């Protein structure tokens, strides 16, 4: 008996040390199983744990000996069910058991006895040890050893379960953070609203792992389904819901999220009415808020694992809704800016074509200016002349060449489109032309091959007096016109029709506005007496002599605005977060001064790694030299040179984190000190520096007077900020390219003005006068009128 007790004695210290060396459940379970199987010759052991106390089941974590067991076992079944009920040491003889009692075991030998030791921690069952004996019944000494091992195993298994639970929670948190970061990057990768809506629905479905996602956006007093991901048979895109008409409609009024985990819920019953396949058994919905204003609603339908939604899912949806709301806000700002740009362009075009009766200027404005907001490659307009349509203007072309094959080809297509007397919209995608008529497809297949275009749109110009012409746009992109662009073209066509009709009528009666006033003045002059006529003629002669013979200085007046002579943008060299800003708006800085600091912990860590590698390479090289191993020293020197290069590169990246001034000047970016923590992309501007030591004043010179200005001419500038002070300078250059301002075209004279006291600042406005030399008084007073008269005469009789 003494020998047997000594054979089965438990090495407590060794087992404890082995358990402490392994923090996880499976390694500890293997240690336990090996120790139990060693109690008896030919025995086998299984260690079970209960991972979740709320939903208990036996899970085999380790085996030893000739035994195999399924991973999960019913908690109340068979011999393990007896252990779960009694929670004490249990021994069963194989002869007294049915095979069903231990069916969880896959064994190829006859089991003579089974022994079970529960693993208890403060009356909580965390697992069990199963001992299977094939050659003998379990002796008392083995049972005693089994109990001793169980006493060691219970806290070891419990702490391992807690360790893995905490680790899994941490990993889930890290995964959730990474997931949120990925979502934010994806959502902020585009500002196109249509792409963003589709992307939000798709990403929500991936993150939540659901059958379908519905994205509703506010439309007036209701919400409209604008995007779907996955499958939902109960609603379709374009569906509109108001309050009381559905879950999304109710949320649009209440602004509160909804969690439905009961398939018998009345709201789901109404939604699933009439739908057998794809019914909704669980639903989660949350509002999309933008600064306390509702912009939309997100619905998530049916988890893919078949379980109902819970509060964790609701919390996750609320978080990603906030990220999506920020992205939608940015996209809406871009759309608003585009609408403003569109309206501004339409106003400019309207002013340009309504401010003149010159048909050529009207035609030029119609085909060129809309290109700011409509992405076409070529715009053209053709007008009816004596019953025949003739091409009059092409965008980007100052002078048409009627013999050019491209011009002839376009004119032919416009004649064909004009004959249809309706809008024409033809596109070619993947070699297919989207028109039902074969002759149209064949015509445009040839036309697209010859021009390289893939999209064509034409709209007739007509009013109540009849057809006036046709306006067309082309592009290499078949989808270059969105719905907003078509609306712009409709408005533009209406404005163009009115302007062209007025210009056409004006050209038909060119003398009517001139002859009537002249005849009236002649009648009044002849009605005067002879003496008064003589005095009048003498006065007119004296005035004429004065205007012809007396010289006067001529000054060209124009609006002036101060522009910086030198402007520089401080930009980020790499993607990162702006850590600190050291300057404020209006602060003067010198070239090379550090203006801001980006987060450089990654570069600092990379520098430390490179330094360590370099030091190690140097030490290895020195050691090899000390050992007279020239070959090894050569290799280590190559390594050292490589890491020295890496050090220099990392030093450069670390230095790039300091944003320095490239010029001396004044900080001109508003609220630059509030940019701390802003995410920057490589090349994005951080702040603007303005060099005010030398100031250039842009003076807007009317188109008709630009030829009178010469470089070096004196100029006087009076700014609104200094009403009693005149700044003097000289014209440096007159811009070679004119710009449209309001209803006229101007050229800019760049006047250099000394600014020694930094009184003049960028953006100041006022007026300036530029000396254009001495000219006869009549030239000074009536030059504009003479030019206008000459242009009229030339337009009527010129060659």
Low-pLDDT stretches are 1-8
Task: Tell me the name of the CATH homologous superfamily of the largest domain.
Answer: GAF domain
Task: Give the CATH architecture of the largest domain.
Answer: 2-Layer Sandwich
Instruction: Identify the overall geometry.
Output: elongated
Task: Return the CATH topology of the largest domain.
Answer: Beta-Lactamase
Mean pLDDT: 80
Number of strands: 33
Radius of gyration: 44 Å
Briefly, what CATH class of the largest domain? Answer: Alpha Beta
Structural class: alpha+beta
Task: Give the strand line-up of the largest sheet.
Answer: 4-2-1-8-7-5
Largest sheet: 6 strands, antiparallel
Q: Roughly what percent helix?
A: 40-55%
Number of domains: 6
Characterization of the model:
This protein has six domains: 2-167, GAF domain (Beta-Lactamase); 189-337, 2-Layer Sandwich (Beta-Lactamase); 356-508, GAF domain (Beta-Lactamase, 2-Layer Sandwich), CATH 3.30.450.40; 514-549, no CATH class; 567-680, no CATH class; 687-797, Efflux pump adaptor protein, beta barrel domain (Elongation Factor Tu (Ef-tu), domain 3). Helices cover 42% and strands 28% of the residues. It contains 18 helices and 33 strands. The strands form six sheets. Strands 4-2-1-8-7-5 form a six-stranded antiparallel beta sheet. A six-stranded antiparallel beta sheet has the order 11-10-9-14-13-12, sandwiched between helices. The chain has a six-stranded antiparallel beta sheet with strand order 16-15-20-19-17-18, sandwiched between helices. The radius of gyration is 44 Å and the shape is elongated. Mean pLDDT is 80; it is low at 1-8.
């Amino acid at each position: 008996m003494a020998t047997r007790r000594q054979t089965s004695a438990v090495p407590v210290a060794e087992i404890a040390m082995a358990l402490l060396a392994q923090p996880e459940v499976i390694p500890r379970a293997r240690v336990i199983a090996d120790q139990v199987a060693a109690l008896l010759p030919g025995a086998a052991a299984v260690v079970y744990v209960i991972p979740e106390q709320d939903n208990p089941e036996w899970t085999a974590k380790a085996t030893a000996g000739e035994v195999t067991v399924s991973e999960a076992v019913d908690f109340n079944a068979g011999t393990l069910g007896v252990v779960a009920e009694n929670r004490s040491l249990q021994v069963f003889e194989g002869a007294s058991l049915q095979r069903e009692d231990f069916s969880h075991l896959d064994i190829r030998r006859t089991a003579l006895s089974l022994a079970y030791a529960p693993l208890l921690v403060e009356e909580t069952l965390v697992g069990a040890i199963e001992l299977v004996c094939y050659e003998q019944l379990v002796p008392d000494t083995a049972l005693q050893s089994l109990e001793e091992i169980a006493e060691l195993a219970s806290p070891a298994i419990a702490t391992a379960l807690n360790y893995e639970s905490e680790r899994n929670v941490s990993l889930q948190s890290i995964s959730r953070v990474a997931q949120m970061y990925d979502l934010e990057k994806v959502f902020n990768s585009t500002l196109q609203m249509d792409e963003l809506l589709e992307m939000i629905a798709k990403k929500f479905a991936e993150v939540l792992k659901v059958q379908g996602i519905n994205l509703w956006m506010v439309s007036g007093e209701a919400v409209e389904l604008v995007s779907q991901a996955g499958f939902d048979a109960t609603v379709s895109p374009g569906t509109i819901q108001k309050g009381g008409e559905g879950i999304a409609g109710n949320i649009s009024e209440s602004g509160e999220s909804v969690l439905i985990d009961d398939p018998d819920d009345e709201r789901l019953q109404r939604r699933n009415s009439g739908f057998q396949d794809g019914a909704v058994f669980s639903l989660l919905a949350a509002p999309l808020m933008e600064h306390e204003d509702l912009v939309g609603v997100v619905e998530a339908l049916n988890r893919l694992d078949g379980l109902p939604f819970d509060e964790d899912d609701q919390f996750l949806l609320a978080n990603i809704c906030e990220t999506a709301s920020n992205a939608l806000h940015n996209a809406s700002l871009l759309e608003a800016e585009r609408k403003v740009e569109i309206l501004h362009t339409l106003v400019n075009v309207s002013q340009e074509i309504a401010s003149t009766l010159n048909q050529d200027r009207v035609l030029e404005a119609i085909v060129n200016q809309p290109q700011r907001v409509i992405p076409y490659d070529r715009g053209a307009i053709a007008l009816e002349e004596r019953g025949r349509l003739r091409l009059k203007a092409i965008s980007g072309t100052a002078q048409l060449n009627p013999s050019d094959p491209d011009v002839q080809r376009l004119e032919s297509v416009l004649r064909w489109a004009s004959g249809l007397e309706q809008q024409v919209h033809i596109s070619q995608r993947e070699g297919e032309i989207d028109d039902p008529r074969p002759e149209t497809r064949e015509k445009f297949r040839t036309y697209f091959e010859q021009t390289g275009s893939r999209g064509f749109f034409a709209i007739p110009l007509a009013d109540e007096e009849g057809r006036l012409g046709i306006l067309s746009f082309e592009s290499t992109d078949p989808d270059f016109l969105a719905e907003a662009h078509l609306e712009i073209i409709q408005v533009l066509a209406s404005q163009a029709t009115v302007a062209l009709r007025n210009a056409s009528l004006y050209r038909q009666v060119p003398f009517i506005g001139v002859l009537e006033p002249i005849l009236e003045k002649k009648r009044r002059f002849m009605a005067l007496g002879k003496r008064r006529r003589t005095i009048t003629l003498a006065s007119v002669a004296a005035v004429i002599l004065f205007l012809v013979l007396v010289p006067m200085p001529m000054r060209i007046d124009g609006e002036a605005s101060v522009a910086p002579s030198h402007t520089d943008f401080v930009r980020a060299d790499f993607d990162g977060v702006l850590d600190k800003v050291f300057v404020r708006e209006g602060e003067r800085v010198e070239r090379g001064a550090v203006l801001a600091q980006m987060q450089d912990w990654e570069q600092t860590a990379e520098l430390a790694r490179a330094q360590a590698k370099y030091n190690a390479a140097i030490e290895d090289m020195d050691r090899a030299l000390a050992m007279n191993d020239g070959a090894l020293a050569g290799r280590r020197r190559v390594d050292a040179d490589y890491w020295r290069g890496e050090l220099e590169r990392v030093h450069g990246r670390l230095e790039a984190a300091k944003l320095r001034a490239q010029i001396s000047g004044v900080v001109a970016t508003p609220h630059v000190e509030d940019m701390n923590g802003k995410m920057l992309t490589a090349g994005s501007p951080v702040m603007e520096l303005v060099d005010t030591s030398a100031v250039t004043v842009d003076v807007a010179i009317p188109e008709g007077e630009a030829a009178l200005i010469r470089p070096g001419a004196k100029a006087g500038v009076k700014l609104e900020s200094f009403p009693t002070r005149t700044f003097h300078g000289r014209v440096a250059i007159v811009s070679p390219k004119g710009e449209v301002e309001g209803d006229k075209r101007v050229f800019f004279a760049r006047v250099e003005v000394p600014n020694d006291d930094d009184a003049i600042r960028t953006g100041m406005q006022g007026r300036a006068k530029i000396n254009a030399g001495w000219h006869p008084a009549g030239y000074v007073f009536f030059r504009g009128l003479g030019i206008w008269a000459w242009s009229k005469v030339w337009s009527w009789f010129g060659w």
